[in-house]
Every structure is written in C-alpha cells, then in structure tokens.
Design brief:
CATH architecture of the largest domain: Beta Barrel
Mean pLDDT: 83
Order of helices and strands: EEHHHEEEEEEEEEHHEEEEEHEEEEEEE
Strand content: 35-45%
Helix content: 25-40%
CATH topology of the largest domain: Porin
Distance between the termini: 42 Å
Strand order of the largest sheet: 3-4-5-8-12-15-16-19-20-21-22-23
Low-confidence stretches: 1-20, 145-149, 461-465
Number of helices: 6
Length: about 475
Amino acid sequence: MKTKQSHFFMITFIFSATLFSQDFSRDLKVIEAYEVEIDKGRENLLKQITKLESVENPNLDLINKKKAQYENYIFNDKMLNILFAEEVGSFFNNSDNLTLQEYFASVSADDKSLSLGFTVNSRGKNALRPLNMVYNFGVKVKAKNKFASIFENGDFNQKSDLGISFNITKVHFIAGAINFSSVKDGNNNIIFNRRALIETYRKKLYADYRGKIKEYKVKTLPKEEDSIRAIQNQMRGYKHKPDISKIYKEKGASLYQSLAEDEIKYIKENKAYSFISSDWVSLDGFLPVTNTTYNILINDNSGNFKAETFVPWRASLSWSYFRKYSNNRSWFISPKISVQNNNNILLEDLTAETLIVERQIFGNGSELETTESVYKEYSEFITPSFGAEFTYFFTKNIGVSPSFEKNVGTYDEFNWKLGVPISLKDKDGKPKVNFELQWKKVNTLTESNYLVGISASFLFGNLIN
C-alpha cells in the first residue's frame, strides 16, 4: 500500500527559558508536576495567541499556526530540553564546532593538531534546564611526528604553534522543533498515529512510576528519614543540620528526570516523531600564544637573511542547522564567514632551504657547519572568506558532503570539496571517530591542486548528562 506523510503536521517549539526549580514534599507528586509543566506550555501558547490577536493587523497565518500547535500540544518542555541537548550534541564534528563535553580532547588530521579544552554551558549539571549557550575554551598545538611538543630541553618551544581556541555558541538561534505528524496512506487514512502512540505509552509510564514511587515511600524513604533524624539529634544547636526535606527534593528531581528520559527513549526507539531540528550560531577564534618566525633570504647575493614574525590568528562566524528524521536519515547545513592572517609560505606549503651560515675546520680535517632554514620569498596578508557546507546522511553512519570556500583579497581563489563522511558512534549513539573520504580542489597563489584523500578527527571524553 502506498503511504505518505500527512500534509497536516504539528511542530512544537522549544521556548522554555526558565530554570528547573521544583520543590517536592513527602508525597512526591512527580507525575502531577510533569503534567503541570505540559499545561504551562499550553498556557504560554494561549497567551501568545491572545497577544497576536490583539494587534491592529493580526497575522492570521501565524495565529492559525499557533492554534494548531495549541490543539496538538503534548510534550513536557523539560523533557524537550533533554531531547534537544542530546541531538545538538550528536552533531559534533571537531574541536572548532559545537561540543557539549565538559572536558574534551581531539586530534585532527586536517591541520595535524591536538586540541584540549573544557566546556561551560547554560544548563550546568541540570539536564532539565534549556541548553541556550555553550562556551568552549581550550589550547591547540601542532603535532609533529605524532607528538605535540610544548617544552623542549626544559625551555618553552616557540615553534609549537600553541594557541588559545574559543567557541561561543547560541543554541536555538531560531528555534528547536519536533514534528510528530501521523502517517497516512494514499487515501488520506491514518495508518500510524504518532500522537496516540505517545499518549498511550505515557499512561503506562505514569502507572509504572506510581508503582516505583509507592514502593520507595514504603520501603526506602522511612529508613532515609530515620537516618537524617538521627544525625539531627546528634547536631542539636548546630545551625547547619541536614534538612530532611532535601531527601524529597533530590528524589523528586531524580524521578522527574528519569521519567523524561524514559519517554525520550520510547519516542526514539518507536519512531514516534517525524523529525527533530534545531540550529545554532557560533563565533570561533584562535589566538596564538607563540608566533611563527621565518628566516627570509635577502636578495642581494650576500647570503644574509632577516627574520619575519607571523601571528597566525583567525576568527569565524557561522550558522548551523540540522534536521534528523526517525528513519536515521539527517541533513546539516552551515554557511560561514571568516577572516585570518595568512602568508605565501602557508598557502604554497613551501619547504625551507638549508643555508650554511658558519663552517669550522678543525686540525684533524673535520668540519662543523652551522645551518639555518631559510625561504626565498615572504609576503603576509589578511584573507577574508565565505563558504558553506551541506551534509546528508542517508544512513546513521555514512553520507555525502559538498562544500565550497571563496577567498577574497590577495588570495582570491575558489576552493571546493566533495566528501563521503563516515561517523563511528559509541553505544549511546554519540560520534567518537569521524573521517571523510574527500575529493577536493585547493588553490595556492600560483597553481591548482586536485586532491583525493582522507580527513579525520578523533574525540576523547564523555558527554555530560
């Protein structure tokens, strides 16, 4: 039977910006609190509709869209906070892009670099809070012969290309969305009602958690309360005695988050959504700690040379959007503008020549030469550029990815790449090793090169909860 997606669909926007702050008493009304959050989301939508209708020239299309959302509103905002953070984090590519790891280390084959860093984000340790801002800070150093040398013979290695990298990201710049439209056949009959599936499972989930809460209150909670009371009796007169209500708050919050995570697991495993999407805006930068020094041969046949200092700074601004479907297909687009300090030695990948600057001849006829690595020419310039990349994964692990980059200024060239990205994920579905088979055209100042090869990045660490 021929099937198709319903033309009518509902998208729930994640707009919750409030922090999770829920006080639970001894009765642990977790399920009631979960339902209250859903009702709050509906109330917020109703307020938006009322506000839109109150203006002089109301936008009827937007009002009708909001009304459709209101009629079909079924998700808990705090559950969506967890869901969107997981999906955003799964689109990690390398250390210059968005990563939610508290601490991270990655190796990139593109520029033979090792990156170490840490992440601060707006939700902290509380997964129920919305992920709005992400801040990545770290150090990046070039790795030569599979080793990143920062100190050499006890001294700081000025040739390490060491620098500070940063990434400041606004998540849900436009909005995150989940679509759970029903599937219909060619006669417009519903053959897969996702909403009914979600609501039926939620009733079962509520029943399971009522049982868990009842069992905990009968078997475990009295023992925990007695333990706290015993400590309180031993600390009479001390103002920092443990508070017995802390048990209820912590257990209530734990059950609330567990309830949300169980619902997410069911939604994913049973394809109870059509697609999930979100976006973010990122400001990336690299500030060098060490500068690069080039010895440039003076063109007067004297054999003398002069030192040129190069500061390899760079910055970029990008917008990224992804959409992931329940059938494991997904696509990702990211336009970017950037600017960097540049020079001809980097672009041409020039190899230094060896210049003998001193020769000593000893009495036994042996010689000792002192040499320096020199370049014949040097020019430094700033290179602005703009470009974009599109990636489509037609399975969970493999896809296709074209991209382009247009540079302007002294280096006025157009580069492109066609890649086949392959992502190896851990047991939780998070990317750990990403590599890409690439065919690309890379222009220098003097020639064009067509290259075929592999680009890879490796990520070490664990995603935060």
